[in-house]
Design goal:
single chain; alpha+beta; Arc Repressor Mutant, subunit A; three-stranded antiparallel beta sheet; 6 helices; 50% helix; 13% strand; elongated
């Protein structure tokens, strides 16, 4: 799978949850971008649909009906999530399949942890 960017360095860079150590300016900008990408109802639904798959990925063609949006709109939302490092994209023939980047959401959760 092709991964454009990963959020794992964010958690490693911050080294501690934000409740223990203040974020630097660059880390805050990066974390805000990731949170902005997932803080949208359609994107949260897409993440949930993909994460629930036993295969670990879904074709964009199978995501349009569950969210009730056109393929170009779903592709836009998926691209935002790929650019944020939450999803990866793999081309299989004429279709694109999306899967969660291993550890990406865990890294975000670790940075936000209060303990």
């Amino acid at each position: 799978m092709t991964v454009r960017r990963t959020v794992l360095p964010l958690a490693q860079q911050c080294c501690a949850p934000i409740a223990r150590e203040p974020l630097g300016a660059d880390s805050a900008v990066e974390l805000a971008g990731i949170l902005k990408a997932i803080a949208e109802p359609t994107r949260l639904r897409l993440l949930s649909l993909i994460a629930a798959q036993p295969e670990g990925s879904m074709c964009v063609c199978d995501l349009t009906e569950p969210v009730g949006l056109s393929q170009p709109t779903v592709s836009h939302h998926l691209r935002v999530l790929v650019d944020a490092g939450i999803l990866s994209r793999e081309k299989r023939g004429v279709n694109a399949h999306y899967g969660l980047v291993p550890g990406a959401l865990d890294s975000v959760a670790a940075v936000l942890a209060t303990t």
